Each structure stands twice: as structure tokens, then as C-alpha cells.
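User: C-alpha cells for Pimeloyl-ACP methyl ester carboxylesterase, please.
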Amino acid sequence: MLRPLVPDGDWEHRFPRLRGMRFHLAVHGVQDARAAPVLLLPDVGRTWWSWRHLLPTLSPDRTVVALDPRGVGASDRTPGGYTLPEVVADLAAVVHHLGAGPAVVVGHGWGGVAALALASRHPALVAGLGLVAAPVPGAWQGYRRLLAASLLGARALTPARLGRWTALQAVDGSPCAEALSHWPGPQRALAPVRRAARRPRLLRELGTDVATLHVRGSSDPLLPRPRRGLRDVVVLPAGHQLPEERPGDLAVTLRGWLATLA
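Assistant: Done. Predicted C-alpha cells:
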């Protein structure tokens, strides 16, 4: 039952089979778009839905795609394949599937790390890199610890305790227990972060010459202050969940940056 995960809106749901599994894409298409498509990646523990406000408003002349990564939302769950190299291979397959050459890839939080890894390994596939509240190399250890602590509260979202959450429901109004059955839970959600923690050198070596924009919230508890010398940083009055706290401001910021890309 996918209804809680794919609510109707100003987008189209697609389910391509790539690398032997089914992925879910929410697509706001522009007919005969000539500019590079925009691929939106959610933070760890979140789904494509976190980008719902930007999908129809981000760009008038580009196809905008929000992805459910492997094991998240309406994409297939697999026993393995959650290492950073495997995630990068998934993203490369998605970009190839879009069939319009390189894509502009925008990642929120841990999705930004995945986007940076894609640009580092396959720069020809990335026309621009947007890092939204994403831990840049050298800052991810503190992000991992704080994120793990913040997800501990998710243990309260169990079927036995749902009766206490009287205002909780799925995005389409269906019972929250049904929607919760599709959520990976805090342990599975943190799996990519835990695996990367075992190979810190892999993250330290990430880097790219692709045109990059950094956007962060002024009150983000998961990120340290931007490093000196880091260029193209926009700070918005918000916390960590910029796509949902400040979708309008974030859309304006990203649109201005997209206009500078070829």
C-alpha cells in the first residue's frame, strides 16, 4: 500500500527499475526543457516529501525531480547497498535515467554528502551542486553525533505508543500507523551515516570543481559555523529543516543560483 507515500499534487510519480530495484521519483516536468534537470535528495530519515514545496516552484524552465533513495519511502528496501559508493552508483543510474545529460543535484543534510560524493566521483554527471544544511568535509562527525541523538525520540513512534499521538497522521490524512509501517525507523535511517563513520577517510577525500552553492540555517543545531574561506555560502534565518522551514526563501536562493548555471 503506497498511498501514504505518494500523495497527489503538482507532480507525477514514476517508478523506474534501476540497478535491479525500483526507485520512486516525484517529477514536476517541463515540456521540452533544455536546461539541465534538478535532482533533489532528502536528508537521512526523510523522504521526497520534504521537497514538496519546492517541486512545483523551483524552476519554470527545468524538470525538477525529488528522489526517494534506496530503502526510503516508496523506493525498494534491499538487504544491502547502503554504503556511500553504492549510494553514488544509485544516483548515477538515476541521472542517466533522466536522459538529459548532467543534472543539477541539490542535497539536504546527508543528501548533500551523497550529492558531493556523486560530483566527486562522476563530475561529468553534475552540472551544479547545491548543498543545503549539509556537513562539508571536516564537519560531519559532529553532525553524525547530533543527528543520532535527535533521532532517539523517533523510538516513541511505535505501534504500541501511537495512541498517545492524537494529532499524528499521514500526509494524505490516512491513519498514521499505515504510514509508519513504510518508515525505515531510526536504526535503518542512520545506516548510511554509521557505515560512513567506519571509513572517515572516504568523506575527507570528497571534493569537486563543480559549481557549488552552500545554503544553511542561522540556527542549525547540527552544523558548526561555516569555515572561513568557504565561498558561495547563503545563510537563511532557520534551523536545519530549510526545505520545510523556509521553502520560499530557499526557492528564491536556488532559483537565483540556477540562473547563473549554463
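User: Anything notable?

Assistant: The chain has nine helices and ten strands.
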